[in-house]
Design brief:
- It holds the Pfam family Ribosomal_L1.
- InterPro entries: Ribosom_uL1_bac-type, Ribosomal_uL1, Ribosomal_uL1-like, Ribosomal_uL1/biogenesis, Ribosomal_uL1_3-a/b-sand, Ribosomal_uL1_CS.
- One of its GO terms (molecular function) is tRNA binding.
- This protein has 2 domains: 17-69 and 160-231, 2-Layer Sandwich (Ribulose 1,5 Bisphosphate Carboxylase/Oxygenase), CATH 3.30.190; 75-158, Rossmann fold (3-Layer(aba) Sandwich), CATH 3.40.50.
- The chain contains 9 helices and 9 strands.
- The chain has helices spanning 7-13, 23-32, 82-90, 98-105, 121-124, 128-131, 149-158, 182-198, 226-231, and strands at 41-48, 60-64, 75-78, 94-96, 113-116, 160-164, 170-177, 209-216, 222-223.
- The strands form 3 sheets. The protein has a 4-stranded antiparallel beta sheet, with helices on one face.
- α2 packs across α8 (182-198) and α3 runs parallel beside α7.
Amino acid sequence: MAKKLSRRMRELLEKVEDRPYEPQAALELLKATATAKFEETAEAHIRLGIDPKYSDQQIRTTVAFPKGTGQSVRIAVITRGEKVNEASNAGADVVGSEELIQEMQNGRMDFDVVMATPDMMPQVAKLGRVLGPKGLMPSPKGGTVTTELDAAIQEFKAGKQEFRADRTGIVHVRFGRVSFSAEDLLVNLKALQETLDRNRPSGAKGKYWRSIYVSASMGPAIEVDIAGLRDYKLPEAA
């Protein structure tokens, strides 16, 4: 049985035409359709021409958003020895060793990013069933297995974000908040597009970008013109 749309959503859908919008116009419309009673997140949903069941068609990487994400990020670090103090001093919210691994196994999940130093990965491996489905398992590709904890923590706090394609080949990424200007959202969206193009899997054949939609977290989906996004040139830094 189809879910009945609310009056608010029906009214918002009437504002969105069934066509691709130029990137700037799409983001201005995203802001105009963010009418929830709380500050919504700006989301991108990108369908790629990949089949992630094949190892050479998977995507898991990070994007550094120039304008940040507008969100506070809670970081947990699994490490030992002198690295415990390094992580704490760098701003990690939760730091521990075997005892933190045990807490996670028991259900503790009050964080957005999990990092680990390489020496802890044999023990962290047992968290695969817990962290894997939530996309939180530390990985070298995602920049979350590292000995350079200070730099990594600062980057994620400043707006770096890990993402991956789901099993249907769609990438879901939060790239800011609706309080951002359309121009700042576009700078972040451009960074995401460039990251995806740089990390095109070797096994991806044919048309790579199938579609891209943006929306506020409680708003309607707005299609973005892919060619327009690729052609967009970032403004020169002052």
